[in-house]
From TrEMBL:
It comes from Prevotella disiens DNF00882. GO terms for molecular function: DNA binding; RNA binding. This is SsrA-binding protein. Belongs to the SmpB family. It comes from the Bacteria.
Amino acid sequence: MNKEEQELRKKSPVQIRNKKASFEYYFIDTYTAGIVLTGTEIKSIRAGKASLVDTFCFINKGEMWVENMNISPYFYGSYSNHEARRKRKLLLNKREIKRLEEESKTPGYTIVPTLVFIDDKGHAKVDIALCRGKKEYDKRQTLKEKEDRREMDRAIKNY
């Protein structure tokens, strides 16, 4: 990911993060994918009414899908409103899908969405990561590092 892409994400009016993913997994490789949405789904995402809790990706017949992603029904939607937790297709190159499929077959590896954002053209994008699960002691170490950083920041502010 280059600097332009990182700045684009920072400027995005909508940034829906999967905070638990960075605690539960080590990120090996990241990709940006488009997502196929209906009209009321994109409106809900622009309103910030989405969640990536307990969300995962899988590959079926050469296509990448995201499961369990919660996009709340649009408040002003009528009979054409969408289901909150349906499977949604992700748009990646065949080469990327093939690589992710091979890598995710390794035991302990999975594919997890980490961020949903709106790009400069107004399209919803999803950052997905190839991840390896952390052990219990790794999670404790992560918490300890986070606590140490907090204490150092407090000490600098008080100094």
